[in-house]
Amino acid sequence: MAGLFGGSALTQARRALLSWLPFIAAIPLLWLVQHFWAEQPDWEYAFQNINHIGIAIILAVSLNLVNGLTGQFSIGHAGFMAVGGYVSAVLLMRGPEQDPYRLFFIASIAAGAGAAALAGWLVGKPSLRLRGDYLAIVTLGFGEIIRVIIENTRLFGGAIGLSPIPRYADFTWIWTAAIATILITKRLRDSTHGRAFLSVREDEVAAEAMGVDTTGYKVRAFVISAGMAGVAGALSGSFEGNLSPQSFTFVRSFEVVAMVVLGGMGSITGSTIAAGVLTLLPEYLRALANLRMVIYSVALVVLMLVRPRGLLGTREIWDFLPWRRRKGAPRPPAKAPELSEALIDVRRATIRFGGLTAVCDFSLTVKPRELVALIGPNGAGKTTVFNLLTGVYPPGEGTILVRGRDTRGLAPHDIAHLGLARTFQNIRLFRELTAFDNVRLGCHHLTRESMGASVRKGELAEVEENWITQRSEELLAVMGLLHRRDDLAKNLPYGEQRRLEIARALATDPKALLLDEPAAGTNQKEKSELMQLIRDIRDRFGVAIVLIEHDMKLVMGVSERILVLDHGVTIAQGLPREIQTNPRVIEAYLGEKYAREHARQIAAGRVQP
Amino acid sequence: MAEFFQHIINGLSVGAIYALIALGYTMVYGVLKLINFAHGDVFMIGAMVGWYVARWTGESRTPSIPGALLVTLAAMAACAILGFVIERLAYRPLLSSPRLSSLITAIGVSFFLEYGGQYVFGPNPRAFNVLPRHLAQHLGPVSLGYVDIVTIIVSVALMLLLQRIVFHTRIGTAMRAVSYNSTVASLMGVNIDLVISFTFVLGSVLAAVAGILYASKYPSVQPLMGLMPGLKAFVAAVLGGIGNVPGAMLGGLVLGLAEQLVSGYLSSSWRDAVAFGILILVLLVRPSGLLGRGEAEKV
Is the pLDDT of residue A450 over 70? Predict the structure, then answer.
């Protein structure tokens, strides 16, 4: 217990506080602006707009967490805003007459945020397994249902709405919340959790294979975003002094989506700027009276046509400044003692797709540091074996043990935690992320910091972040990719993409590495380099390697044991030498007729086996 | 029991209109993977053009069947042009951009049509008299509104025609090919631009007819009338399995019936919530809609 109250906890708290200091210092400044400026009658209209922008920023930045960073498509944000607004308004209207220190106000905002977050969880939990447009329509549906429920509830004032709500929210409150939203989202995005969000957006299958709990992260993004929308709703209600269900229709949600897309998916400063532009645009057009919304809509279309990826794309304003920071000592990775004999133990696994038996009665054991190759003609079921091992498909029959643990019922990310990492036949990098981020994502499941710690920037978060940086750079160096550190994965040449996938897989600290055709599309020279690289990886990282490969020179040169599949059936198993002369293997590869021919030639001594 | 049949008739008539609009959503989604949020407003423009033409020809004073046909044809022509222009100006430039960008232009176009409609037409509803008024027919205790009968007959005829176009013509085959894989379709010599334009025109024409029928049913026109039916029709398209033509028809009918039964037996203020509730339940059980086929991702 001493540690809890000792130096480390104190330093941690101090560091967290320090990192928030500029923000805390800014609050009195905001208050000064409010006191000496915003309350001037001449400025009332201007500050009304400024406050509307603040609320729009909270909405846009929070929705960006779901739509931009996590790549899920939600168009029900107005519903969560309504939940937050109504819950806090109901409390405020029943609250004490006087609230000099605004304690009750803060509590009501928190209650609104909590209720909205709860609503987000209730909506997100069942619906986030849907994808793309289906998710969109379900969120839209939930948003509308929330509005209909409010319209039919007497407590919430029905269709007329609630009024008067105590008007506590002013410039100080709204902009404190807006800046806090930006900072929290930015810190989340820059942490290991932020990379996990991005990995879900880029490629869910690869993210799971790297040990990212994709469903969990989708729900988390959704809940946090809904909670923030709840804050926006609470502030909006208390700022306007009234709430009506008509202001929370799907049109409102569309406006927020427009801000996110116009700003650039995933760009926090982009969302912020777009929130300002799209809030001010109709105000500036007010002189045009009836035509203003017509022009607003044309402007929206034109802006989108001119900048199809949004104002800032996926970048941030500060990305134009070269600014990096690296410091701190690395933490050595914790090595668990290796006990079990067989890393992977597959017993009689079978899987069928409809009438097709893709893999039948498959058994395989892989010991630590072993180099096993899986070969066979196209369509033999090799990749399916990898999919079985990594939990992409559960086996129909049989059991798969990874480090002694039955993997039935485990999600791919759980199996990644057990120590299996893989690469993909059709490269599945997170294409829009840098090489460095791809590798850092591999480290994700080794981190322990909480989301709260990431936001607070506690010591653990920082130490881990340094360790991840160090480890990722090492891995990039080992794979000869350090010069590509900050290039987007999609811009790397093919061979380097394959090596980056291996680096990313190694970053998960696996016990066994599954390589799916690493030599595909490479030339002879690269193949011999790869052969050396595979041996090096085994020696350096002490991992077992299971290799799917068509290049026989590579397979024979590197593997200690070979397993041959044909039409889902294991037709041979043994040392490379034995496989080369096995008649069934030759038959599978060359066809029956040529196999007989080949055998005759061997018998006649005309060719070497 | 009579009440029940009455709700069924009403539900079928509303559902048929939803289905007509939903077909436009689903076909566009099929070829472009785009939710054309402006589609509900194309439906509104169809009704509005009908209103103007009816006033111009004097149809609104002396409704007649040939007059109604003329009005409908004019609305169809106007919406065909509108659909073509929207696609050319707002969507085609973004064909190679992220999908969400064209969604925002769709929302922009939708706002444009709504607010433009308010500017030109005025925000208030105006009476819509295009179909001749006949007294309701009575089948025992169930009354069959003239508009309902026309709606159901016209919709069924159009859906059969569409089925014919999509499954038995060259352009329909091309549409299905583009929907399945547009890159491969273009390599096989399908003119994708033409197919996309055709799809928009076809969907808009159906929306125009739906607009005339809807405006005749509640006999009025106003610039925001496309909002809710458009959204419901989109729900219907997703319910049936988006991208799937028979699915859109089924989804429209299911939604129309469900809504009428809910407003009949529960309360009309919960109608919208129930429509979405059904959608959510169906999607949770069958994530790709009633008739949609799930696509497994190859790893």
Answer: yes
CB atoms within 10 A of CB A40: 10
Residue of A nearest to B121 (CA): A290
Of A140, A290, A392, the CB nearest to B119: A290
Residues from chain B contacting residue A296 (CB–CB below 8 Å): 111, 115
| pLDDT value at residue A108 | 96
- Whether residue B89 lies inside any domain: the answer is yes
Sequence-ordered alpha helix ranges (H) in chain B: 2-32, 39-57, 65-86, 99-121, 146-168, 170-180, 182-187, 192-217, 227-240, 245-265, 271-285
- DSSP class of residue A425? S
Tokens of B71: 């009005």
Encoded tokens for A155? 């407590």
Which pLDDT band holds residue B135 (cuts at 50, 70, 90)?
low
Q: Is residue B274 part of a domain?
A: no
Number of folded domains in chain B?
1
Tell me which chain A residue has its CA closest to the CA of residue B282.
A138
Report ipTM (2 d.p.).
0.85
Q: How far is CA A400 from CA A336, A353, A442, A464, A563, in A?
A: 22, 18, 23, 33, 17
- Do A290 and B231 make contact, defined as CB atoms within 8 angstroms? no
User: Domain for residue B121, yes or no?
Assistant: yes
| Length of chain B, in residues | 299
Strand partners, A243: A162
**Is residue B137 in some structural domain?**
yes
pTM (two decimals): 0.82
Residues of chain A with C-beta less than 8 angstroms from the C-beta of B115: 293-294, 296-297
Q: Hey, are the CB atoms on B101 and A134 less than 8 Å from each other?
A: no
Enumerate the β-bridge partners of residue B221.
Answer: B126
Q: What is the pLDDT of residues A553-574, one digit of tens each?
A: 889 889 999 999 998 899 999 9
What pLDDT, in 10s, does the model give residues B211-263?
999 999 888 999 999 988 998 998 899 888 888 888 999 999 999 999 999 88
Range of the domain at B211: 19-230
pLDDT for the residue numbered A543? 92
Give the nearest chain B residue to A391 (CA atoms).
B299
Most A CBs within 10 Å: which of B89, B111, B291, B298, as the mutation test of the A interface?
Answer: B111
Residue A154 has pLDDT above 80, yes or no: yes
Asked whether the beta carbons of residue A290 and residue B118 sit closer than 8 angstroms, the reply is yes
User: Please, where are the H alpha helices in A241-322?
Assistant: 250-263, 268-284, 292-306
Residue A322 is predicted with a pLDDT of 55
- Pseudo-torsion of CA A22, A27, A28, A32, nearest 10°? 120
Comparing CB atoms, the residue among A127, A290, A387 nearest residue B299 is A387
Q: What is the pLDDT of residues A321-378, one digit of tens each?
A: 654 443 333 444 444 444 446 889 999 999 988 778 889 999 999 999 899 999 988 8
List the domains of chain A with CATH numbers: 49-248 (no CATH), 344-419+510-603 (3.40.50.300)
Q: CB of A205 within 8 A of CB of B299?
A: yes
Beta carbons of A293 and B107 less than 8 Å apart: no
Q: Do B108 and A309 touch (CB under 8 A)?
A: no
Tell me how close the Cα of B6 comes to any Cα of chain A, in angstroms: 26
Please name the residue of chain B whose CA is at the shortest distance from the CA of residue A278.
B108
Residue labelled with tokens 């959704």: A222
Average pLDDT of the segment spanning A276-298: 84
Give dist(CA B205, CA B76) in Å, integer.
5
Query: What number is the average pLDDT over the span A102-117?
Result: 95
Do B283 and A130 count as a contact with CB atoms less than 8 A apart? yes
Min Cα separation B95/chain A (Å): 10
The 8-class DSSP code of residue A6 comes to: S
Nearest CA to CA, how far is A258 from chain B (Å)? 6
Instruction: Identify the residue among A63, A74, A134, A277 best suited for mutation to test binding to B, counting B beta carbons within 10 A and taking the highest.
Output: A134
Closest residue in A to B88 (Cα–Cα): A305
